[in-house]
Amino acid sequence: xxxxxxxxxxxxxxxxxxxEAQEKLKKAKxxxxxxxxxxxxxxxxxxxxxxxxxFLIDEQKPELSNLNRQILYGEExxxxxxxxxxxxxxxxxxxxxxxxxxxxxxxxxxxIEDLLNEVDAVVDALxxxxxxxxxxxxxxxxxxxxxxxxxxxxxxxxxTILPGRTPCLNCLxxxxxxxxxxxxxxxxxxxxxxxxxxEVIKLITGYGDNLMGKLFTYDLLxxxxxxxxxxxxxxxxxxxxxxxxxRQ
Length: 248
Known about the structure:
Elements: H1 4-9, H2 11-27, E1 29-33, H3 39-49, E2 53-57, H4 83-94, E3 99-103, H5 112-116, E4 121-124, H6 129-142, E5 146-152, E6 155-161, H7 169-172, H8 186-205, E7 214-219, E8 224-229, H9 240-247
Parallel strand pairs: 1-2, 1-4, 2-3, 4-5
Antiparallel strand pairs: 5-6, 6-7, 7-8
C-alpha cells in the first residue's frame, strides 16, 4: 500500500496510471548494471518514479574523464568511493522511500546469479559487449526482461528484450564490435538513459507500449530517428530454444 507521503510524492504519476500501477513500481526490484553515462540518468529517474528496490552494480570509481556524461558525480567524488556507493548516497537524498543495494564489483559468470537472481528486470547500462552478452544469456535463461541501450558519439540505440517473445541481444548483434575507446557526449547518454528508465516504468506498470521486437535508433547530430522491426534468429545459440519451448 502507498503511504500518504507517497501518494503526495507520486500524485502526478497516479493521475496517469493509477494507484495500482504505482504500487507495482513500489514492489519492483530492478538492477542497473553500470553506473556511468547511461546508469546515471536511469538511476535518477527510476528513483524519482518510486521503484521499490534498486540493485546498483559497478566496480569502478569516478574519474575526471567521466564527468562530461556521468551526472551522478562531481569533482569532489573523484577516486574516492566506488560508483554504486556514491550513487546510493545521492539517490537517497532524492527519495528516502526506496531501498538501494550496492555491489562494487564486476559481473562474471561465477557471480551473476547471486547478484541478479532476485530482480524483476535488468537494465544494461554497460559500455562493453562482453558483459552485455553475459547479461543477455542470464536473462534469457531466467526469463527476465533486459532493457538494452548502447551509445557512441551522438548516436544511440535501445530495445527491450523479453525472452521467449522477442529477439535477444545475440540475435541482433551476433558479432561484437571491436573493443575501443569511443567518443561520447553527455546529451546522448542522457537521452538514451531516460528512454531506458521509461521502458522500465512502462514494463512494470503495463502502461503504454514497450520497444519489444523493435530497435529504436536516434542520431542526435542530424535529428534522425528510426524504429526498426527486428525478428528472432531461429538459429540463435542463446535464445532459439526458448521459442521452441514456448510453442510446445
